[in-house]
Structures are given as structure tokens and as C-alpha cells.
Specification:
By secondary structure, the protein is of the alpha/beta class. The chain contains 13 helices and eleven strands.
Length: about 300
């Protein structure tokens, strides 16, 4: 078998003619002619999902405190509520269930919720918080058994070896008129422009590196879904500061979690309200230019004819 047939196909256009882009320790990124950047090769533990099965990072005190803070999903919740004020929701890659927990707490009775992820400690924790979960592979769900008004992929698509299959499956389990939400790191964010491969979220478990343009291209290839919204959100200037001065090639999980915990606490402090207003203005400006840390699209299932 030659190297060309072994190469990973582009997650957007499915071609196999990508060229070397960046290297970072064991991670090798390539760039396709369609402009999509992705990891090739992919280690088996990431392709199969085995890496996530017993990962304890999600249950660290710092990670849980930041994930379950009221401000953690405020942007995602605002976006979600604008398109789905009620109904059946499937959160794919729900981890410890923080998003669904916020949805249940803030909008009690409005949603019939279900979380889905690889089996492991994170799902066990979600259940202790009253979040209903299923330990089943998303691609194996019977679309005839249950349909949803919304499917969410919050920071999930970057982890998948075959993200196109997941988007296709989302179209199958959505009701006509239902919405699919995707949010993923932004390869053309201000942070990446300043730091390049030193940016902490260029990491082995991230297999796909979308820009606003490639994420839209990816979304448009699913003919059963139409795009109704897109944009850029989130900005953490302390990440840029730390990564710029860091001499480490990668940032340990616990260090990342501690920074998220600290910045989440600052966002909730009444003493920093004036600074938060300034920060929000900067984030909006970067978002308007697609330079914020994450990009998102909202897709709607086309009505059956």
C-alpha cells in the first residue's frame, strides 16, 4: 500500500493531496488545497476515542469549578436560546454535563435533554448532577427511534477523525426545522496569529483546525442542513500572555484548568465589573472580525418535501 492511499482524507473536501503545514512535538499538521488544516497521521488512541475513556482531567477540581460556573456557557446559552427556546436536545460530547445542567437550571421544564459521550468518569459525574446520559456511540443511534429539536457539538468537531459522518448523523436525528450547533477553536484567531503553533490548543487530541471559511465550507457540504447563523466568540488574553512567555512546548492539563478557573472567578467578581465591560467590548470587536478564540455555525434541518 502506498503512502498516498494511507494518508488521511481532508475532513472538508475528502481529498488526499495536503501539504505539510506545522509540526509540534508528535503532532503533524497538513493543509489541503481547500485551505483546511488537519492532523495527519492520527494516533489510534485519538481516532478510536480510547484516549477519553478513563481521562481524569475532566474531574479535576479546577476543571469542574470552571465548567459549572454560571458564566461558563453564557455565550453558548444565549446563542442556543435564540434558535431553540424549547424542545428535545441532544448534547454530543457532553463530558461532565455542564451545558445541559445550566440549561436545566435556568430553563426548568423547557427542554427534554440527553447527553452523549464516550463511557467513563465524566458521564458518571454528569449523572450525579441529574443530567440524563446514554453510553452509546453517536453514529450508532437509531434515528427512527428518537428525533431532536437541537443537536449540539460544543468543542467536539476538532476531536473527531471523521467529523463529516457526525454532521451527517446530526441531520438524520434532527426533526425538520431542528437546529445543529457547532463551536470549535479558530485557527485564524488573534491568539493563533500571534503565537502560531505555540498556542496551547494546538495539541495532539485536536485533529481538525477550522477557520470561519473552512467551517462554513464543511457545513455547506451537508445538503440536508442550511446555515442560519455563524460567528466568532470567546477571548482569553491571559492565554496569549502565558503562551507567549512559556518555554514549554505544551501546557499541562492541570495548568490549563487552573487558568480557566481563575479567569472564570474574575468574570464573576463584582469588583471587576468595569474591566469586564471593557473586555466584553474587545471580545465583540474581535468576534465581528472572526478573530475571537472560537468560531461557530448554526444549521437548520431542511423541511421534508
Amino acid at each position: 500500500m502506498n503512502r498516498e492511499s494511507e494518508r488521511r482524507p481532508c475532513p472538508v473536501c475528502n481529498q488526499r493531496d495536503a501539504e505539510e503545514f506545522w509540526g509540534k512535538e508528535a503532532l503533524q499538521l497538513v493543509r489541503c488545497r481547500c485551505a483546511m488544516v488537519f492532523a495527519d497521521p492520527v494516533a489510534e488512541e485519538f481516532a478510536s476515542g480510547a484516549f477519553y475513556h478513563e481521562r481524569r482531567f475532566y474531574l479535576s477540581a479546577s476543571k469542574l469549578e470552571s465548567d459549572y460556573a454560571p458564566v461558563r456557557f453564557e455565550r453558548e446559552l444565549r446563542l442556543f436560546r435564540a434558535w431553540c427556546p424549547a424542545g428535545a436536545v441532544l448534547d454530543v460530547g457532553c463530558s461532565t454535563g455542564a451545558f445541559l445542567h445550566q440549561l436545566k437550571t435556568r430553563h426548568a421544564g423547557a427542554y427534554d435533554m440527553l447527553g452523549l459521550d464516550v463511557p467513563g468518569p465524566a458521564l458518571d459525574y454528569a449523572e450525579t448532577k441529574g443530567v440524563p446520559v446514554r453510553r452509546e456511540a453517536f453514529l450508532e443511534i437509531d434515528s427512527a427511534e428518537r428525533q431532536f429539536d437541537a443537536v449540539t457539538f460544543w468543542a467536539v468537531m476538532e476531536h473527531l477523525a471523521e467529523p463529516g459522518r457526525f454532521l451527517q448523523k446530526a441531520a438524520q436525528v434532527l426533526k425538520p426545522g431542528g437546529h445543529c450547533f457547532m463551536l470549535t477553536p479558530n485557527l485564524r484567531s488573534l491568539a493563533v496569529r500571534l503565537l502560531g503553533p505555540r498556542y496551547r490548543y494546538i495539541m495532539p487530541e485536536h485533529l481538525n483546525y477550522f477557520t470561519a471559511a473552512t467551517l462554513k465550507d464543511f457545513a455547506r457540504r451537508q445538503q440536508d442542513l442550511e446555515m442560519v447563523d455563524c460567528g466568532s466568540m470567546h477571548f482569553n488574553p491571559l492565554v496569549i500572555w502565558q503562551d507567549f512567555w512559556s518555554r514549554q512546548p505544551s501546557v499541562p492539563d492541570e495548568q490549563r484548568a487552573r487558568l480557566l478557573q481563575r479567569t472564570t472567578a474574575w468574570k464573576q467578581s463584582p469588583w471587576l465589573a468595569p474591566l469586564k465591560a471593557f473586555y466584553s467590548g474587545v471580545e465583540r470587536m474581535l468576534g465581528s472580525m472572526n478573530l475571537a478564540d472560537n468560531i461557530f455555525v448554526v444549521l437548520r434541518r431542511r423541511s421534508s418535501h
